[in-house]
Amino acid sequence: MLIHLNDVLSCEEKTVSRTIDLEMDSFDSSLGSFPFIKKEPVELTITNLGTEKLKLEASAKLTVAIPCDRCLEEVEIPLRLAISREVDMKQTAEGRIDDLDEADFIIGYNLDVDKLVYSEILVNWPMKTLCRKDCKGICKKCGTNLNHGSCGCDTAELDPRMAVIAEIFKNCN
Q1: What are 34-42's contacts with CB under 8 Å, separation 24+?
Q2: Contact 69, 130 (CB under 8 A)
Q3: Residues 154-164: pLDDT tens digits?
Q4: In 42-142, which ranges are continuous DSSP H helix?
Q5: Which of 57, 99, 123, 166 makes an SS bond possible with 45, Cβ 3.0 to 4.6 Å?
Q6: pLDDT reported for residue 21
Q7: How far apart are CA 171 and CA 159, in angstroms?
């Protein structure tokens, strides 16, 4: 959702607070598409600090469905986002990028709330997701989820240097 910033920029020390529903229903990235199980509206406060500088403060609560890194079952991960950014509206988009202030959520004099939340989710994305600490994962041979029981596959891994000797013992039986 786009919010016009002209109203806030018109008067120094002006503060605008809004509750905004997110338009996106999932987090889509190069890792895949992860649906939101729950999403609460974003609480946004925009404050004019003077000399065309804005302070953006926002909070959001989301629950995302992410597959377990070991067994691939969906895990509901709560994300609590607390956003606080200062934006210099005098700078051009290129100037912000040069200053490493990758504020792609500001388009002209409009604030794209979905892009702001997206970039914050990206920063807060969990490094590893497990359904439980002792997750056993899946069988390397048949793909059975080992948390539900054993699959019966031969899981013995022999040293490849001993493959010739293992073949001899197979032929003896």
Answers
A1: 34/64, 34/65, 34/66, 35/64, 35/65, 36/62, 36/63, 36/64, 36/65, 37/63, 37/64, 37/65, 37/76, 38/62, 38/63, 39/63, 42/113, 42/117
A2: yes
A3: 767 777 787 77
A4: 93-98, 113-124
A5: 57
A6: 92
A7: 18
Instruction: Give the containing element (helix H, strand E) for 111.
Output: strand 110-112
Q: Which of 62, 40, 65, 51 is nearest to 12 (CA)?
A: 51
Could you give the 3-state DSSP secondary structure of residue 79? strand
Residues written for the chain: 173
Q: For tokens 């912000």, what's the residue?
A: 96
Q: H or E segment at 107? A: strand 106-107
The mean pLDDT value of the chain amounts to 86
Residue 90, both tokens: 């005098």
Residue 77 CB contacts under 8 Å (≥ 6 apart), including other chains: 63, 64, 65, 66, 126, 129
pLDDT at residue number 59: 95
Report how far Cα 48 is from the mean position of its chain's Cα atoms. Answer: 29
Tokens 């013995």 found at: 156
